[in-house]
Amino acid sequence: MFNTTVAWITLRATLSRRRALLFALPAMILILLTVALRASRAPMRPWPSHVLGTFGFSVLIPLTALIIGTSVLGAEIDDGSIVHLLATPVRRSAVVMTKFIVATGLTMVFAAVPELIAALISGGGSIPGQGAAGLVAIDTGKFAVGLFVGALACSVIYNAVFVMISAATTRAIAVGLLYVLVWEVLLSNFVSGVKLLSVSHYGLGIANGLASDPVLEAGLGVLTSVVMGAIVTVVALALAMNLLSSFTLKGEPA
Amino acid sequence: MTSIELRSVSRWYGNVVAVNDVTMSIGPGVTGLLGPNGAGKSTIMHMIAGFLPPSRGELTIGSKASWRDPSVYRQVGLVPERDSVYAFLTGEQFVLSTAKLHELPDPAAAAARAIALLDMADAADRKIATYSKGMRQRIKVAAALVHDPEVLLLDEPFNGMDPRQRLHMMDLLDKLGTEGRTILFSSHILEEVERLSGTIQVVVAGRLAASGDFRAIRRLMTSRPHVFTVRSSDDRLLAGVLIGGTTAGRPAVTAVELTRAGLQVRTSDYGAFCRDIAVLTRDHGIRLREVLSADESLESVFAYLVAD
Questions:
Q1: A127, B8, B39, B105 — which has fewest CB within 10 A?
Q2: Together in a domain, B111 and B244
Q3: Are B249 and B279 in a shared domain?
Q4: What is the domain range of residue B261?
């Protein structure tokens, strides 16, 4: 299911595009924001949970995964070079799996690791403000590990989704961006039912399961998050494999 | 020996019929798929190459359907039309990685052989991004040939090549064809094809307009005059003989023009003219120096088919 040659070409292609510079941008913003807040000793102490939870899980990770996930397959479909890969006996399922694994690995490096670093810098999770009932301090280690594991899980699920979108449409970036902004950022945070189908909330659910931080506002339990995340990943990859098996070249523009 | 078979293949996009009930059999040797832009050549190529399902009909390569079966690529090499290659790789890396994707036992040797075959050894360690269009075309062919396929499909392979590269490519295709491989290429540049292949499949407006040896096809079109240039020991006498000669032996000549280069003779019957001119010149003691079929080029075949 994993083809090293496909992985090598994908990695070379993804990192040699100018778009690669964008990979690190959301992570840079997150880390700089964390450093700035930490330095300013913001009085509203639960900021790490908000910044790393809400911004991290519904902006940083999905955007990074979007750029990478659509890059590994979508860019090659766009410029037609995918034909060189597909006109070989390599199974299409192996092409999808390999590209998904490469994208996931890159997203972990460019989003999950920065999330871990920012969590370590932040100095821990929610803390009892004056009279803020039920909040306790969460030590840095526990907080960071929780967020890191949640971010790793998000990297996996998001990339499965974005690889599938790349196989489904030639406008993968636009469709993906719309999905992130409308579904993940807007609806899932305001319409409670949507959480059940929100990748960011799977990640938050898993992070919360380890960090037990109510300020993360995880709407889902760990078990639900893991099961739903696994289902979404498997379904998205199966769809992507089927779509790529039926990959067509468009006729000449008449 | 692997052949490509299309049986009543049609392909439509919504209401637009791109390919209409095409049946053809492409065997070993070089075959040209010809037609003007938009005639459906690419659609046919894509269907054969397994990158488009036929809407109706049956299409096989060596008795296997190519759609949704990547294993056909073990015996098929494809040179796509789009000039998109992994520009960030060197020529050698590109061909070598293709060899690895084919899981060849010795990918390095296969890559070196394919690169040498295409005369690309000198540029092999340069990035493809630095290549000219013709060089990119050749490295694509090298990659398509790396697994020594029985069938080679080339979509508009002569695009962007300079005359020397074209000749090299044509020689190569001819050589591969005579080795018993099935080579199918598409083209709208007809003069190349004429030099290259005896067999053509002409597609016009989605239909197979003609098929077979292109000279034979030309001869079938007797309703259209053929033009010959004839030089002889006595052009004036020959002109008289041809136009006014005995009714019995007179070939179907419709016009004769005396020019400095010789006689321009129009005839409506290719075969009869060729037979009769020999008899007539012998009878009148005229010595033939040259009989040239002036419009036996693919352009005229093609123009005729398209105009119809």
A1: B105
A2: no
A3: yes
A4: 221-307
A92 touches chain B (CB under 8 A): yes
B167 and B283 assigned to the same domain: no
Partner-chain contact B101 A90, CB within 8 Å: yes
Of the candidates A8, A86, A252, the beta carbon closest to that of B37 is on: A252
pLDDT for the residue B190:
65
From residue B171, give the alpha-carbon distance in Å to each of A89, B137, B165, B168, B214: 28, 15, 10, 5, 19
Sheet with B226-232: list strands edge to edge.
B253-259, B262-267, B226-232, B288-293
Q: Are residues B189 and B263 in the same domain?
A: no
Same domain, B127 and B228: no
| Residue contact A89–B98, C-beta within 8 A | no
Residues B207 and B245 in one domain: no
Neighbouring C-alpha atoms within 13 Å toward the C-beta of B285 = 0
ipTM: 0.90
In terms of domains, do B41 and B125 share one? yes
Provide, as residue numbers in chain A, all residues whose Cβ is less than 8 Å from the Cβ of B52: 248-249, 251
Considering only residues A203 and B160, tell me which one the structure prediction assigns the higher pLDDT: A203
The string of DSSP codes covering chain B is: ---EEEEEEEEEETTEEEEEEEEEEE-SEEEEEE--TTSSHHHHHHHHTTSS--SEEEEEETTEE-TT-GGGGGTEEEE-SS----TTSBHHHHHHHHHHHTT-SSHHHHHHHHHHHTT-GGGTTSBGGG--HHHHHHHHHHHHHTT--SEEEEESTTTT--HHHHHHHHHHHHHHHHTT-EEEEEES-HHHHHHH-SEEEEEETTEEEEEEEHHHHHHH-TTS-EEEEEEES-HHHHHHHHHHS-TTT---EEEEEEETTEEEEEES-HHHHHHHHHHHHHHTTPPEEEEEETT-SHHHHHHHHHH-
A5 touches chain B (CB under 8 A): yes
Both B212 and B81 in one domain: the answer is yes
Q: Amino acid identity, residue B122?
A: D
**What's the pTM value of the predicted model, to 2 decimals?**
0.84
